[in-house]
Structure formats: C-alpha cells, structure tokens
Design brief:
This protein has three helices and 28 strands. The protein is mainly β and 353 residues long. The protein has one domain (2-352): Beta-galactosidase, Chain A, domain 5 (Distorted Sandwich), CATH 2.70.98.10. The strands form seven sheets. Strands 11-12-13-14-28-24-23-18-21 form a nine-stranded antiparallel β-sheet. It starts with a helix and ends with a strand.
Length: 353
C-alpha cells in the first residue's frame, strides 16, 4: 500500500559536484515529505503541514555541504556501531577486552571518531522508501566482528518508519539510533521550550561529569525529569538540579515502560507545538530514549531559513539501548552474536493537535 501512495526519487545532494558521491532520496506522500542522504544514512529533512495546511521543514538541517560534513554531521544521522557513550574506551565480551577509538575525555561517543554517521551507505529503492546498507569490517573503531547493517526508511501517509537490522561475524555490541533534531514550529522559528513533551517513562539514568550513567535508575517523580504527563520542555530546564546544571539542559536517557515482547513498536514520546498544532508521536522497540535539547548549539549551523541554530533550537528524541550498557550488567544487553539478527524499529507519526 505504501508503494502506491509514496513517490520515491533519487538525485545528487550537492549541485556543485563537490559532494556528488552523496545521494539525496526524497520520499513524498500526500501529506509529508522526507529526505534521506546516503552520507550517514541521514534523515535530512521532514516537511509537514500545520493546522492551517501550511507545510514547514521541522528538522534542523543545512543545505551547505561544509555544514553537513562538519558541525551538522550528526543531524539526523544513523549513529553507531554504538550510539551514545561507552566509558573508558573499552568493552569486554566473553572475558576478552577490546580497546575502542575514543572521542575525548576517555569516552567513545556514537561509535567513535569515524562512526557510521561519517560513512557513505549504499542505497536502493524499496516499496514506499529507501534501503541503506553498510559493511563495517572486523575491528572497525576497535569493535570486534564484521557487521552488516541495513536501515530502511518507509513513508506511509504521515508515518515514517525507520527499521534497523544487523548481523555480525563475531560477538560484538550494537546500539543504533537516529539523531534528528525536531522543531515542530519549523526550523529557524526559535527555540522548542514551549513545545509540550510527554515521555512514557517513570525513571531515567543520572550521569557523571562525562555523561556516563552512574548505574541505578532514578525515579522521575517530583523532579524536573518528570514528563509522565505533558509539560513544556522549558518548564524546569533551568531548575537548580545538579543533573541539569552539568548538562546545561536535558541530555539524558529515560527508561521507557516495558516494550512489547512481540517486537511491535510501543509509544515512547509525544511532542506537540501548541502554536502550529503539529504533533509527533514516537514509537519504538527500544528500551531507552535520549532526550537532548541542543544545549551546546551556538550558531555554527545555519538552516534553510537562513537562521543560525542557537541553544534549544531543536530537540533530539533518540530511541536506543541505555548508554554504557556494556559496563552495566543490570541494563538490557547490547551483545550481538553470530547467527543472531539485531532488529530495531522506530516510528515517527506526524499529526495535528
């Protein structure tokens, strides 16, 4: 059904030719348009109408190649082989230790300095969307096992599904996510502090100064991390709380309600812009959700609107396994073994409130 409703188009991303190896795939339904780049298997654009039918780009993005390759390199990208942070730049699997490429401060972030977000993926059309594939060799950024990864983007009406699969030649760890930044009022329209956010979570994972989880889950009740009912993103973002002060806002992983055992994506978050009426429902098979409110943005990226993105210009809702799971035996495991298949799915459902 999606194949009949969705137009799929492929073209070079950079008209100057400097980025000719990067392809842009456009998925267009009667309600929504999504664009995907082969660089980083990136969700580069998402256009949706407001309550009056006026469309707007609701992802932070840039059309400047230098930006895509530079300060915006994680915007909307598929990050891996291990999304988020691993402490001390090492993992141990079956008693064997593997040193990993580090990104600074004794941490391996988003798979290392040359993670999946920096690679050119191969791409092919599938019904209603595009399939991107990447081969990560044994030892890539220090991770054991040759990993073959597939990411499908499929658009059906106002619903975009991102489906991940991976197989390995040796025991390894895998944690994949999409790193899109949303502003439902439209990119360049200001901050997201007035957006209403609901998170289907009763706990989160507090972190140390390196953004590494301390270990035990912490209940959100009675704290600025309680989004169990809808509240503005900015309501408590500047409260006198040590976790907020250290990060300059939200950059934390929420422990989602139990996922369905049959692998059906379950709601994780609901985001609403009261002004435009646009809503975003996020469903996932993953046990965690990293919420990042662009605390470190200082105008280094300029969007299609011509506006430079400052602090709180967007919000990332990264479905994932919990950060540093390889060092936290109480967290859901991220180990993948030969003969197994990693599967994960995230659904972005756009609407009007």
């Amino acid at each position: 059904m999606a194949a009949q409703q969705t137009e799929v188009r492929r073209e070079p991303f950079d008209a100057s030719g400097a980025g000719a190896a990067i392809e842009r795939w456009t998925l267009r339904s009667d309600r929504v348009e999504a664009t995907v780049l082969t660089l980083g298997a990136t969700l580069h654009g998402l256009t949706a109408p407001d309550r009056d039918g006026h469309p707007a780009q609701i992802l932070l993005c840039t059309e400047e190649l230098t930006g895509v390759l530079g300060p915006a390199r994680h915007y909307g990208a598929t990050v891996g082989r291990y999304a988020n942070r691993i402490a001390d730049g090492r993992i141990t699997i079956d008693g064997e230790e593997y040193p990993l490429a580090q990104t600074g401060n004794g941490v391996t972030l988003h798979g290392g300095p040359d993670g999946f977000a920096h690679r050119i993926w191969s791409a092919a059309e599938i019904p209603g969307g595009v399939r991107l594939q990447l081969h990560s060799p044994d030892g890539d950024q220090g991770f054991p096992g040759a990993l073959d990864v597939t990411v499908d983007y499929v658009l059906d009406g106002a619903t975009l599904t991102i489906a991940y699969r991976a197989v390995t030649s040796r025991p390894t760890v895998v944690n994949l996510t999409n790193h899109a930044y949303f502003n439902l009022a439209g990119e360049g329209s200001g901050d997201v502090l007035g957006h209403l956010l609901t998170l289907d979570a009763d706990a989160y994972t507090p972190v140390d100064a390196r953004q590494i989880p301390l270990g035990p889950y912490e209940p959100v009740a009675g704290t600025p991390f309680d989004f169990s009912t809808a509240r503005p993103v900015g309501k408590a973002i500047e409260d006198d709380h040590p976790q907020l002060a250290a990060a300059g806002g939200y950059d934390h992983n929420w422990v989602l309600h139990e996922r369905r055992p049959d692998g059906t994506p379950t709601r994780a978050a609901f985001l609403e812009d009261p002004v435009s009426g646009r809503t975003l429902e996020v469903l996932t098979t993953e046990p965690g959700l990293q919420v990042y409110t662009a605390n470190g943005f200082h105008g280094a990226v300029r969007g299609p609107s011509g506006v430079a993105y400052g602090k709180f210009a967007g919000i990332a809702l990264e479905t994932q396994h919990h950060p540093d799971s390889p060092h936290q035996p109480g967290y859901p495991s991220t180990v993948l073994r030969p003969g197994e298949e990693f599967r994960s799915a995230t659904v972005l459902r756009l609407g009007i409130g």
